[in-house]
Task: inverse folding
């Protein structure tokens, strides 16, 4: 008689945060999380990371905000959001009710604003972590100033670190020469984890009308097109720091997610893939489980970081 | 159970045939589809990641029973995605998220309705016509196209066999009214008595310029109007904030999602 | 009677170099140029830029050297080449014979080597320009050291500038935080033009075998996937410098090429597109001409740099 | 004029049908195709840029006349590109660069030939068999597969109807020799007289491990052998240096392009 094998253990830890699986929704591609309730039970995710929050509600950029590119897309949403107060009052309770582990992605135009948002969120007992968006390319003040030099990044991180007791994840910009040193700055300044990559700055124009396709002229490139760049940067960051690295960029399938885990990511975030397939995140979770079963690996931790050379 | 909650389903193409410049595609889906006229679907049906994003298409017709549904789309080839769709064969798979967005509000039965479709915009207003036909609502159709060949086939038009119900308009005068459909609407509006105007609601879908023009005519005459807008979309279900359009909010304006708060908006709200 | 309009004038100037049209083949994707002779007359191109040349022949990296990615590819060729001597002796005369305008792309492990290669090529009367590859991500010494800081780049450029009287084009790496300042360094150090972008560093792994797909682990990403990033960087470089900017990255069609010309590029290079369609370059030339005819533009120069905002 | 210079052509699919695990595709091209057995084509036939690169496929057969050529490929679905090819229909367009690479050297007519194909590798050696058949060359076939169903259809095999000419081998013993085709070749080699070995040349295509094994057996017995290698390719015509394999060059080794100096190499040269 063959006893059925126990299902593989997908649990991961991102610093002090324990997650039932390594699949998180990427900020800005998952609304406030509740929009996915018609499709599946969002408590199935490792965590839900909500749309970037600012101190005050923000109207965002003028349309056109998105353009499709080869195997990718550019966006220049400009961080349209309801502001931290409405999030705390209206959204957080419903996420808690839904049983979701959730993380707030934050940004500010100034360091003071970052601090204020972080402080306001610290009161939420159910919030698992704060992800500091030090890298939005689409608002002039959206952190790119802080996110493109090790010095700016460590200053920002230190201040926000001091403002909250919540685990602090710092989201890195790929628009830098050396991602490893950026990751180290965040680590040195007290980040509990780094997540990367945010979008790569890109542009699209219409050769007939002779105009930029985005009202904002430039936007952030995401999707499968950027996966090779993201994977390389995640691998470099994993070698540069001791804190956990969360891998993001072009993940569409379980195989993609496994690649990031293989090079050392503690967890992954799924962004643009949610648009074409609202079930992408749960299909990825199921696919990782199936892979571990097929390969007879009982714990994801045995696989993670196991790149051979 | 049939449900109006959006779902992501795998479909299989039953028919995909050309009719003049339009294609009509019928797809088998796992369950009966219920929808409000004006709602749409996000459709993708090609392997690989280029094109990456699904395409929004109005739900033209839908039905079926428990465990076996169908949905129909009518589309025009304008770029890569629609070209790929047009090349699909019977039996090919399709991924569809539906039903999506806020559709037309058909409200009280004692009203009169004008349904205006410019170009392929008819595909969004015909379902409203079909619903009004069922309820024996009092409606007329205004359909505009560049030329005669670009009008929808007569048999697709709800009430298309009833005399006086359908007003065709062509920019080149090859069929019906000679001129833009907006002009035809405005002229007819001016011919109405105040009591007739009081009962009237206009529903419209088509190029933004056409909608703006008609909405000016309608609002100036206190005729309520609902417009179905288009915009580039990434998700179609409200999570990317990519598809916004500016709407009036009190004194100010704000960006609302075409895929969620729309595609159908009260024409008074729109900042054109 | 309608007199047929004169065919539009596609000629462009890259500094002192006059080219009959703006379409050049990108280094490393066009062999030594002669390989294309079966497909078309290579004298039809604006210019042929040959595979990167080093002082001595170089064996290149171990296979696997290429991996396909979403709408792109990674390569880690490692600059396998026949060395400058054989190029001068065997290839250059045949390119001249074929009537091709040709440019040599060069790299060295040290500044001395760069200088030596440039000097050796300066004797070739028919050589139109030297393109300094300050940015190959696939050989440790291939310029990335010089190419990732403004300081390194200007030092290298200055030295090579002094070593040759040929027009000097400096090819920039996209793996930097601020492409504008890199372009300015090259300009200040005496470059006659900058060309960009080279490939973006990326990586691919096999989640089953748990190994990198490239023997070199990382490689350079090229193809349509990078076009939005390339276009943005070319636009930024055009605004940063007065010298001509040559646009490169993901160009496959005449429309793509026109986009780069629209944001201000003086000319474009076509790389990866040559692989799928050996006739890509000439189809792009024809496509640009057809576009100008359709739009009734008599000289490409009237269109170039005409981005509206 | 028919030419062996490589060309980039647009083709149109005439037939694309499954035969067990293999597909055979016939394509109409603008002109007669002449090729050397072992030469290949770079094929792409999908819209969009994902997959990006064309796929190398051996030229299985080709012909035609001035202004109307045909070319045939035999392939197995192993990944995205071949899956896309298998979904193409009659009339669909295909882009092809051909003929490419250095093929088999069939040389003197008085030699005996063994043609060895492992897996779909038969598609590369069959054209050599066909050429030898025409010249009434003295050849035998060794074909290896995992199991019976994965052998090529009998009617595709050059000389397949001649007794004693074809040696089938299966890993699971369901047809012919029970074991790897390399073992069958080695055993037969050992059974040959020195004079027979002296006349023999082996041509082989298949998995690298198989080729390495057979080449050891052959070279140890002084039997010349030509191997057709595979590698990932970007261009297929010698300009990207992506497809190299290590070959001996005097005391040292060097990287040669599989698409240009190969795919067919003298087995003595290869650094396995
Ligand atoms: C709610 C809604 C309902 C629609 N219903 C229909 C319908 O029933 N029949 C029909 O023929 N068309 C309809 N459209 C328009 C249809 O979505 C576009 O024609 C289609 O997306 C074009 O895709 P493409 O790849 O062929 O064109 P491309 O120009 O190659 O597309 C490039 C990108 O732009 C987007 N795009 C281009 N034009 C439009 C557009 N007009 N609206 C939205 N996105 C666009 C594409 O989705 C894609 O992301 C509808 C649009 C919306 C928003
Ligand atoms: C000279 C030559 C002749 C060939 N002839 C035939 C033939 O006649 N019939 C046949 O079925 N197959 C043949 N092959 C193998 C065939 O090219 C691969 O099976 C095919 O490229 C796989 O593509 P895919 O997209 O289905 O697989 P994927 O694994 O999805 O392809 C990913 C990438 O890897 C490359 N790749 C994967 N496997 C191979 C391989 N074995 N060789 C080269 N590149 C590979 C692909 O081209 C693509 O760039 C030949 C290969 C070469 C080099
Ligand atoms: C439409 C859109 C909006 C985004 N908004 C945010 C945001 O608010 N905050 C943030 O940190 N990242 C934002 N991102 C970046 C994603 O979280 C993610 O880092 C990036 O898209 C790369 O992952 P992907 O390729 O899986 O999409 C956004 C991305 C997209 C496509
Ligand atoms: C296979 C390959 C080899 C290359 N070799 C060189 C080289 O030798 N020197 C160089 O400056 N750039 C080299 N490049 C970079 C290209 O010239 C070009 O900058 C880059 O590929 C982006 O353009 P594309 O997207 O059109 O390919 C190489 C690119 C590829 C794909
Ligand atoms: S398309 Fe994503 S919010 Fe409307
Ligand atoms: S595939 Fe490009 S050189 Fe061989």
Result:
């Amino acid at each position: 008689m063959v006893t059925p094998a126990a299902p593989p253990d997908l649990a991961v830890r991102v610093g002090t945060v324990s997650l039932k699986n390594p699949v998180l929704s990427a900020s800005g591609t998952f609304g406030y999380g509740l929009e996915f309730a018609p499709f599946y039970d969002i408590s199935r995710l490792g965590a839900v990371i909500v749309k970037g929050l600012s101190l005050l509600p923000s109207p965002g950029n003028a349309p056109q905000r998105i353009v499709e590119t080869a195997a990718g897309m550019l966006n220049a949403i400009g961080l349209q959001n309801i502001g931290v107060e409405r999030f705390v009052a209206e959204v957080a309770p419903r996420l808690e009710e839904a049983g979701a582990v959730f993380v707030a992605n934050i940004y500010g135009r100034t360091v003071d604003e970052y601090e204020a948002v972080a402080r306001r969120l610290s009161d939420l007992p159910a919030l698992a972590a704060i992800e500091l968006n030090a890298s939005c390319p689409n608002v002039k003040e959206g952190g790119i100033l802080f996110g493109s030099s090790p010095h700016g990044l460590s200053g920002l991180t230190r201040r926000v670190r001091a403002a909250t007791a919540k685990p602090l994840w710092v989201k890195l910009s790929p628009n830098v020469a050396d991602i490893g040193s950026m990751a180290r700055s965040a680590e040195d300044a007290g980040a509990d984890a780094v997540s990367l990559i945010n979008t790569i700055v890109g542009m699209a124009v219409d050769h007939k009308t002779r105009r930029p396709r985005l009202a904002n002229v430039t936007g952030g490139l995401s999707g499968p097109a950027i996966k090779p760049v993201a994977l390389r940067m995640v691998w470099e960051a994993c070698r540069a720091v001791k804190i956990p690295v969360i891998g993001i960029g072009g993940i569409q399938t379980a195989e993609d997610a496994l690649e990031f885990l293989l090079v050392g990511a503690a967890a992954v975030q799924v962004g643009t893939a949610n648009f074409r397939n609202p079930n992408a995140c749960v299909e990825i979770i199921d696919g990782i489980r199936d892979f571990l079963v097929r390969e007879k690996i009982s714990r994801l931790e045995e696989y993670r970081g196991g790149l051979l050379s | 159970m049939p449900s109006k909650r959006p779902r992501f389903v795998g479909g299989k193409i039953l028919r995909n045939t050309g009719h003049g410049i339009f294609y009509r595609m019928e797809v088998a889906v796992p369950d009966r589809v219920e929808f409000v006229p004006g709602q749409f679907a996000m459709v993708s049906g090609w392997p690989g990641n280029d094109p990456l994003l699904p395409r929004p298409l109005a739900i033209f017709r839908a039905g079926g029973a428990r465990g076996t549904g169908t949905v129909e789309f009518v589309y025009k080839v304008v770029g890569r995605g629609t070209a790929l769709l047009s090349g699909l064969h019977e039996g090919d798979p399709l991924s569809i998220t539906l039903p999506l967005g806020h559709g037309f509000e058909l409200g009280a039965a004692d009203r009169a309705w004008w349904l205006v479709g410019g170009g392929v915009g008819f595909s969004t207003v015909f379902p409203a016509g079909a619903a009004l036909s069922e309820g024996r609502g009092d409606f007329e159709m205004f359909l505009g196209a560049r030329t005669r060949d670009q009008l929808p086939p007569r048999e697709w038009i709800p009430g298309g066999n009833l005399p006086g119900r359908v007003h065709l308009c062509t920019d080149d005068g090859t069929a019906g009214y000679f001129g833009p459909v907006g002009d035809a609407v405005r002229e007819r509006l001016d011919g109405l008595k105040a009591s007739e105007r009081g009962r009237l609601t206009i529903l419209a879908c088509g190029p933004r310029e056409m909608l703006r023009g008609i909405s000016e005519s309608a609002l100036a005459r206190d005729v309520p109007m609902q417009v179905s807008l288009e915009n580039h979309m990434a998700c179609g279900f409200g999570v990317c904030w990519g598809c916004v359009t500016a709407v009036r909010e009190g004194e100010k304006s704000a960006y609302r999602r075409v895929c969620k708060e729309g595609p159908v908006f009260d024409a008074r709200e729109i900042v054109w």
Q: What stands out?
A: Chain C has a mean pLDDT of 94. Chain C has one domain: 12-61+81-202+221-302.
